[in-house]
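Inputs:
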Amino acid sequence: MAATPTVLVIGGGSTGCGIARDLAMRGLDVTLVEQGNLTHGTTGRMHGLLHSGARYAVADQSSARECIAEMRILEDVASHCVEETGGLFVERPEDDEDYFERKLRGCDECDIPAEVLTGREAREREPYLAEDVEKAIAVPDGAVDPFRLCVANAASARNRGARIETHARVTDLIVEAGEVVGAEVEHESGPGKRTHASPGTTERIEADHVVNATGAWAGRIGELAGVDVAVRPSKGVMTVMNVRQVDTVINRCRPKGDADIVVPHETTCILGTTDEEVEDPGDYPEKQWEVDLLIDQLAELLPVLRDARTIRSYWGVRPLYEPPEAGTEDPTDVTRDFFLLDHADRDARPGLTTVVGGKFTTYRLMAEAVSDHVCERLGVSAPCRTADVPLPGSRDERVLDEAMDDFGLTSPVARRSKQRLGDRSAEVLDTEDPNPVVCSCEGVTRAEVQDAVAESGTDLNAVRIRTRASMGNCQGGFCAHAMAQELHPEYDPERAAAALDDLYQERWKGQRHALWGEQLSQAMLTYALHATTMNRGRTVRDDDVDFDAFDGGATGGD
Amino acid sequence: MAIEQEVLVIGGGLAGATAAIAAARTGADVRLVSAKQPTLRHASGLIDVLGYTPDGEGPLAEPFEHFADLPEGHPYERVGRDAVEAGLAMFDDICGDSYEGKRTDRNALVPTFGGRLKPTARYSASAAEGLASDTRDMLLVGFERLVGFDAPLAAARLNAADPPFEARGVTVEFSADLTAEPKVTRFAHLLDRDESTDAGRPVRSALADRVVAHLDGEARVGFPAVLGDDHPNAVRDELADRLGAAVFEVPMGPPSLPGLRLEDRLYDALDAAGVRIETGNPVMGFAGDDRIESVTVDRNGASVPYAAEQFVLATGGLVGKGIDSDRDGVAEPIFDCHVPHPPDRYDWFDDDAFGDHRFARFGVDPDRDLRPLDASGTPEFENLRAAGSVLGNYDFAAEKSGSGVSLATGVRAGRLAGEHT
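Outputs:
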């Protein structure tokens, strides 16, 4: 074994990035590989709820206790990624009164602060709540930006010497003498930042231990080492509204069911969700009825949603797992606990550990458990510090307020930038050059886009998740091209064009589920702007034009 | 007492304005009502007739040669080439020297802000020196604080199309002190008024000095389309004079100054034609059966009936809200004219962002007199005609045919309405 033990973490979601940070802070030599950009899998496709645990307070009290403890930790170490919105569990006339009481008792038993509100009191907090909502339980639910939190973990890991490789797909695990000793990795364009249209390379990465933190994809990675990991991927739809109809997380107070939560998130609200098992986490149907179900059901709690404008919908896949003997049929009933599979004990395949199941809110705890296990296997004795050391960006915000005026940003833009960047604001925004707004919907400035490009290369979707640029009402219609222009001249025009096409298509993908009313008008405007004035399009080519055949004007040409 | 006129045009965009002027020129008494500002400010101000065939062939140098191949129901197939020529003739008459391209039936290729070439039939005088079939080398100039137009990138893209000239791009600081997020109109007004910079110099000459330092023998210089709102010719002329090179504008995205300037011209022409104009008052509904007697106009919350003999529907497409939709279907909201569309909304779009989107062709289905047809192919009303992007059966964005259809159908609908009074 090398002087510093080496660990390869596969998977750049919240768990993988959390593990990479934890291990790097314990002094290990960590490499993380991710097939897409960070948050590519489930992390980037959640509804942004930071659980107080109230949701699990009846059925799964150990998860509930974990949630409230982890929530408190994240409010502390990741303050710039968390919004303390509070939450309501809302009861309608047809809902079970007994369940309401059990929920209240459960919160009490799990030390989750809970307060009963009358219907009137609940509507005073959230005026759009339906008139017939009878009462509610107020709990400390919050909202979290999974993108920034994940990126902050990766940045922290890197600051401590870890290597983070995105767009690096594991094609094989290397097994020698029965032990996993590393992986073959295919870099989409080469190690380091992604560059569109650059040829790929392959690399052999050796490690003393390999962690499979690929969530819904854990079965595929397990197969490469000949071990069976039976993840049960379960899809759920989320629909993004164009404004925040609520400032509090709204939950339906009933045992279980689809379409029972609305989470305020940045400038939007996100409706969730459904729960349906799928075969392949990378390829599953996205259906109209799922979106309709969300809107129709949640309109029972918030009637304003029935005719409100949605800007896109997206699906996520939960990496549900239960031990093979459990045999639960309904995915809704599969435990949300996480499982650490020690393949040395389980399958006589040392060198590999898999983590599956779990929830975003407890990602840090999962990372701690996995890191403890890996350290034990490697004989390393170092305590976990991730609950105490703030993530990059989250330190003392008060210092920033004074500094913000210096950056020449108008106040709403400055406020939003500061919220996103936390204590990195000064470092990112303190530029001598003009710093205009590139994305007006979300108030994202050139300096922020440039900072993200420096991190992630030509992958504008990675820029998007770091900055929120192109995530507002216009879904990139008015800014995607401006974002792509920021790649030039560091990257050549072809790469900037390819990056634009990628981002534009990604934004289109989610909008397809929101194409009626205002958003269909917006989509037509965007299409017209890009296809007409910019003359972009599927069949538009300008590499074989007979210039002489066209009008050359009064002065030139003809 | 109802408000009465012979022809009522609903909608104040290019099609509505054209229809109103055409109707007024037949001698009819015409009123135009529009709910809000027209969408011209979103458009480049270029007047396209047909840049690509519906099958994607192009760019087309000779748009009229492809008219015979257009599918049945396409607005051009409905009104014919004569109407397009009549529409262009009226446009040329309205715009005079401020637009060019009338010397020939051929399309011109205009470089736009992304560095792509766009085939178009008429272009504003401010864009005339920028044509891509012109052989003179060009320098493109972008401004640091104006996002969306990266001049070096646009120049590189242009050169990649192998045009008969060399393009080069530079980015400069604008010559006046600007806030962090200046609007395009701010640039335009500074140039219009030739305001003084901090250093006490007029902004036009200060800008010219900054650009001159970068000129390397190019005979023409292109700027983003912010060169003046009220006095674009004076701004361009002074810059050209100081640079010793021709000056042109590169059409930009919204808000588009060439679009706003065109809007001004159209409203001047409406005034000159004696059309009464009301904006800000949406039409909510109508009275009548086979024949429309009146429409109900919302004036500050009061419902006022407007009676007319003939009506022209020019309310725009999905963007202008002349066509509306919800989760269950697509509709024309004022007269509830039939809008053909697939029942399943997941058949309204293509999975490719630039695919063959059915929604791009949503609109009413007209007969040859531009009367919207019901599902059985019968005119919905004997005295209602439709013009512009409220019409269906064509994808103006893919074909680059938006303005041409608005002019052709506007002229035809307006004339027919006027002649039937």
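Remarks. Confidence is low (pLDDT under 50) at residues 398-404 of chain A. Residues 256 and 333 of chain A are 9 Å apart (CA to CA).
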